[in-house]
Each structure stands twice: as structure tokens, then as C-alpha cells.
């Protein structure tokens, strides 16, 4: 059941439900409890009492604001921070989305075909959407060659049929199922960098950073070198340096080193720099 507060579904696709998930319910309950405690505390302090004249502050110690014990306020702050992050993410998606969602689902009035590089069937799309999501696509569509073509078509040689379908799905909806993202994240990241689809590039980058581990770090380092993400490359290099024994002596690293000599040099330099800094400390 979709939460009406923290759901990642775009607002235009959201069903009309007034439901919330367990996390949001607990956050709301904690907020109410905090407000009630603060209100009760205020009533206590408003009542005349001998303790109120004592200078040792003993009466104030009963307030949740001055208690040394853990208070729900900490949970509320975390919850509010999480909600703020969710709100910012939703704002990005709302800006990214348009009324083309139904067009993608029903292929209404498609006026161009995208051809994958694996000789798969052409996929219908909309010129206006492609131009609005990518400055590169806009320039291609504005070119004389595309204007005079008997049948409007663009070939994306670097993408397979599945990868191209995933790219279009993201362009139309602003999101992608986790299994498709996991399968095509590297190809989509490179395509997003090539065609200047910044939100997709950030979307893929965050996924790779969250799932970075020994089995994936060399692939992430390789793809970060093809793209323009300094953050992703630095994170991958740092992970390799911290896990040198497990990575450098693996079969995967041997194959990696055959075609990525410059990255191996960078790994070596990063490792020696880290070792030198440790000796200085």
C-alpha cells in the first residue's frame, strides 16, 4: 500500500488514498507525544511552587528540554530530516515529469523512432519529450539531417533494446524499477552523461554509491571514468584503497588491469598517498 507522505510515486500517478506507512505513523505519533509533553511541562512551570524559587534548577530538570535522558525530540528531528529529503526528491521528480506519461503508456501520437544498437525493433517516442529532457537530443532533432529524413529516426548505437527501453521509461516517468536499474545502471549512467540527462545521471550515481561493494567497485570505477562524475570516481578509488588485498589479488582485477592501465596507475598512487598520510599521522 502506497504511503501518501513518503511515496516515491510521482503525484500525477498516485492513487487517491489517504494512507500512511508504519514509519510515517511512528513519526507522527512521536511528534504528538512530544508536543503533549511540552504542553504538560509548560503547565507545571506555570503553577506557583516553592521549587520555582530554588536556584539549583531542580524544577527545570523535569522538563524534557533539559532532561539528560534521551527524548523523542531526537527521533522527531531525524524524521523531519528524512521528510525534508523526501520532499526535495519529489520536487526534482515533479519538475522532471510532464504530461507525456500517458503518451508513453499508450504510445499516443508518437512522431519518432529510436533504434537500438543491437538490431532490435525501433521504439516509438515523442520528439518534444526527447528535446525537453536532453539538450543533445534537441540539437539532433534540430539538425537538417533529422528534419529532412523520410522517416524520423535516431539510432543509439551504444544501447541495446532493453537498455533503450529502460532509458525511455525513465524519461517518461522519472523513475525506474529496482530490478531494471540494477541490470542497466552502468549503461544508463554512460548514456545519461553522453546525452546530458542530468537527473538520470544523478539517479544512477546514487544507486551505485549505495550498492558499492567488492564485487562491483571495479565496474563502478570503470564507468565513472567514462562519465564525468568526480564524486563517484573518488568514492570508488577510496573503496579500492581500503580493500586492496581483497580486490587487487582477485581474478577480476587481473582482467580489469589489462584494459585499464591508467586506472591501475591511479589506484597505486591513491594507495601510496594514503599510506604516506598514515605514516605522517
Description:
A three-stranded mixed sheet has the order 2-1-3. It is mainly alpha-helical and 281 residues long. The protein is built from 14 helices and three strands. The chain has a domain at 11-96. Helix 1 packs across helix 2 and helix 4 crosses helix 5. The model is unreliable at 49-67 (pLDDT under 50). Pfam families: BTB.
In spatial order, strands of the major sheet run 2-1-3
- CA-to-CA gap between the ends? 52 Å
Radius of gyration, taken over Cα atoms and rounded to an integer in Å: 27 Å
Number of strands: 3
Query: What percentage of residues falls in helices of 4 or more residues?
Result: 55-70%
Major sheet attributes:
3 strands, mixed
Low-confidence stretches: 49-67
Count of helix runs: 14
Structural class: mainly alpha
Tertiary shape: flat
* Strand portion: under 5%
Order of helix and strand elements from N to C terminus: HHHEEHHHEHHHHHHHH
Task: Output mean pLDDT.
Answer: 80
Primary descriptors:
281 residues, mainly alpha, three-stranded mixed beta sheet, 62% helix, flat, BTB/POZ_dom, BTB domain-containing protein, At1g01640-like, SKP1/BTB/POZ_sf
Amino acid at each position: 500500500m502506497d504511503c501518501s507522505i513518503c511515496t516515491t510515486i510521482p503525484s500525477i500517478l498516485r492513487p487517491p488514498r489517504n494512507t500512511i506507512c508504519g514509519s510515517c505513523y511512528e513519526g507522527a505519533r512521536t511528534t504528538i507525544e512530544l508536543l503533549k509533553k511540552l504542553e504538560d511541562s509548560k503547565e507545571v512551570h506555570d503553577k506557583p511552587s516553592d521549587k520555582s524559587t530554588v536556584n539549583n534548577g531542580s524544577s527545570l530538570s523535569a522538563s524534557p528540554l533539559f532532561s539528560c535522558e534521551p527524548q523523542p525530540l531526537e527521533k522527531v528531528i531525524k524524521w523531519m530530516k528524512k521528510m525534508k529529503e523526501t520532499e526535495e526528491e519529489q520536487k526534482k521528480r515533479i519538475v522532471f515529469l510532464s504530461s507525456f506519461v500517458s503518451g508513453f503508456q499508450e504510445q499516443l501520437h508518437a512522431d519518432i523512432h529510436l533504434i537500438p544498437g543491437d538490431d532490435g525493433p525501433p521504439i516509438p517516442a515523442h520528439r518534444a519529450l526527447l528535446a525537453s529532457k536532453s539538450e543533445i537530443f534537441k540539437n539532433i532533432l534540430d539538425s537538417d539531417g533529422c528534419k529532412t529524413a523520410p522517416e524520423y529516426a535516431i539510432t543509439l548505437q551504444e544501447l541495446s533494446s532493453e537498455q533503450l527501453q529502460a532509458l525511455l521509461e525513465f524519461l517518461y516517468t522519472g523513475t525506474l524499477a529496482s530490478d531494471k536499474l540494477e541490470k542497466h545502471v552502468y549503461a544508463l549512467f554512460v548514456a545519461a552523461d553522453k546525452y546530458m540527462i542530468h537527473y538520470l545521471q544523478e539517479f544512477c550515481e546514487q544507486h551505485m554509491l549505495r550498492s558499492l561493494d567488492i564485487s562491483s567497485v571495479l565496474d563502478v570505477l570503470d564507468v565513472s571514468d567514462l562519465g564525468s562524475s568526480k564524486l563517484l570516481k573518488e568514492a570508488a578509488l577510496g573503496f579500492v584503497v581500503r580493500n586492496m588485498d581483497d580486490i587487487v589479488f582477485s581474478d577480476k582485477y587481473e582482467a580489469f588491469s589489462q584494459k585499464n592501465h591508467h586506472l591501475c596507475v591511479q589506484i597505486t598512487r591513491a594507495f601510496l598517498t594514503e599510506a604516506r598520510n598514515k605514516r605522517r599521522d
